[in-house]
């Protein structure tokens, strides 16, 4: 019996020795590494550069030159596209456990290249040479983004003619139209072969949108008539401040509306009424502040990653309430546009977008508004959402999702973006009109 503890001691020493020499499993298995990542100099702001991660299409069904390239822009203003990469639509995400990447069954790079850019400079791992270089308006945002995109295309042989789709969420409801408008209007023969714009739960026409909260929550049964009036009053303050061109104050007043909404409804987050806790962007912060992460992504070890930059948010505060609806109107005559919203979002949800669509100055508007809203089904017959389209405009309401549509409905969101880009399924075939009022019949 005496020799047993000795053997045990020997064995455990051996184990100890083995565990000391073998390194911990890597945070990033090889298959989780981006195809490329690093910095794109932003020429209009010397010394500044945008950080990016790029994932090539997992399945190149066409030649590289024809394989679409999706660009993803996060909102904020001031939030990092690494949230999109590692928590929403990228091929590997941290969604449940800290510092543990899991493959995403609905990654958007199945058929398309996927480029995440930390925009504008000063956001995420992007570098702003000085505070003065950080954009204060959408024109500057577009100029910087365009410079970065051209740089990316030039750095990669074979990318010259790839069809480019600019996508993004939330405050990217400003960025996506502004880079689209800039390319279509000023660089139509330039290096970016733009083929479409897609916005998820966007802020695009803020004055119209801020006025939708009261009716939206009232008719959802979330507030009573008295509370509805209180919200309407708060909304009106923001609108009045816009009319007197007090842009920053108007943005603050909009924040007040959202705070009021949060207080009245008691939700853990206005971004998704079904969630018991806010979205876990803290998991992305943890991951990106690991030494190993910075090493594999090509980021200076001394940089600290924040999910959203207060500085950039502050610099762009005067831009928040400014509309870019006219840019969408310009774009939809020249390229296709997708507006999609997760239905559980109380900040930038379906009603909020539909209200400004109705006010678009666009020749196709009447046809769009009377087009059939079709039920979009999942493989097993469940409801995935609703799709309405006419000409170059598509609208999708995503069932069971909040503000972060790809987080909440990964596979459905991937099916949506693939269908829209490739014009298949509900995005293929003839435009569909509903049984339509006689005034439209007469004119056709
Ligand atoms: C690649 O795409 C083709 C055509 O869509 C499909 O048949 C094939 O199963 C895909 N392969 C993988 C590994 O996804
Ligand atoms: C929301 O609730 C907090 C905490 O009770 C309070 O300090 C704040 O004034 C309220 N804000 C609004 C706009 O109602
Ligand atoms: C990283 O940043 C620090 C501080 O700005 C700088 O001193 C250092 O040279 C940088 N390292 C590299 C490899 O660029
Ligand atoms: C729709 O977009 C295409 C480019 O995809 C453009 O050629 C066409 O003129 C647009 N159609 C309309 C009716 O605006």
From TrEMBL:
Keywords: Carboxypeptidase, Hydrolase, Protease, Secreted, Signal. One of its GO terms (cellular component) is extracellular region. InterPro entries: AB_hydrolase_fold, Peptidase_S10, Ser_caboxypep_ser_AS. Its EC number is 3.4.16.-. One of its GO terms (molecular function) is serine-type carboxypeptidase activity. Coiled coil: none annotated. Residues 1-22 form the signal peptide. Its main location: secreted. It is an enzyme of class 3 (hydrolase). Gene3D superfamilies: alpha/beta hydrolase. Belongs to the peptidase S10 family. This is Carboxypeptidase.
């Amino acid at each position: 019996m005496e020799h047993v503890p000795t053997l045990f001691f020997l064995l455990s020493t051996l184990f100890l020795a083995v565990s000391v020499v073998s390194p911990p499993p890597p945070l990033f298995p090889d298959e989780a590494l981006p195809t490329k990542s690093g910095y794109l100099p932003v020429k209009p702001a010397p010394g500044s550069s945008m950080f990016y991660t790029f994932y090539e299409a997992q399945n190149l069904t066409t030649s590289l030159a024809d394989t679409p390239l999706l660009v993803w822009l996060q909102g904020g203003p001031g939030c990092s596209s690494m949230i999109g990469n590692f928590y929403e639509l990228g091929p590997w995400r941290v969604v449940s456990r800290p510092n543990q990447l899991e493959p995403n069954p609905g990654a958007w790079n199945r058929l398309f290249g996927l480029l995440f850019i930390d925009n504008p400079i000063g956001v995420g791992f992007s570098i702003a040479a000085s505070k003065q270089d950080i954009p204060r308006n959408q024109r500057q945002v577009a100029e910087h983004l365009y410079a970065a995109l051209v740089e990316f295309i030039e750095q990669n042989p074979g990318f010259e003619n790839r069809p480019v789709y600019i996508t993004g969420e939330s405050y990217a409801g400003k960025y996506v139209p502004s880079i689209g408008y800039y390319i279509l209007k000023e660089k139509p023969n330039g290096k970016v072969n733009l083929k479409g714009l897609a916005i998820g739960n966007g802020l695009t026409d803020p004055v119209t949108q801020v006025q939708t909260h009261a009716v939206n929550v009232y008719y959802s049964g979330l507030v009573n008539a008295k509370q509805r009036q209180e919200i309407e009053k708060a909304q009106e303050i923001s609108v009045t401040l816009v009319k007197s061109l007090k842009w920053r104050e108007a943005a603050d007043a909009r924040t007040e509306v959202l705070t009021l909404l949060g207080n009245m409804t008691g939700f853990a987050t206005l971004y998704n009424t079904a969630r018991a806790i806010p979205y876990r962007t803290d998991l992305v912060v943890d991951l990106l502040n690991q030494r190993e992460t910075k090493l594999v992504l090509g980021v200076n070890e001394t940089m600290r990653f924040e999910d959203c930059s207060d500085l950039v948010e502050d610099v762009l505060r005067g831009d928040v309430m400014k509309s870019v609806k006219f840019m969408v109107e310009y774009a939809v005559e020249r390229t296709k546009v997708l507006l999609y919203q997760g239905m559980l979002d109380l900040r930038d949800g379906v009603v909020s977008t539909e209200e400004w669509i109705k006010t678009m100055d666009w020749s196709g508007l009447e046809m769009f508004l009377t087009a059939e809203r079709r039920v979009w089904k999942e493989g097993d017959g469940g409801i995935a959402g609703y799709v309405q389209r006419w000409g170059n405009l598509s609208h999708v309401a995503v069932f069971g999702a909040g503000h972060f549509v790809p987080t909440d409905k990964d596979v459905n969101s991937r099916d949506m973006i693939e269908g829209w880009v490739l014009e298949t399924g509900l995005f293929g075939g003839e435009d569909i009109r509903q049984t339509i009022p006689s005034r439209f019949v007469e004119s056709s």
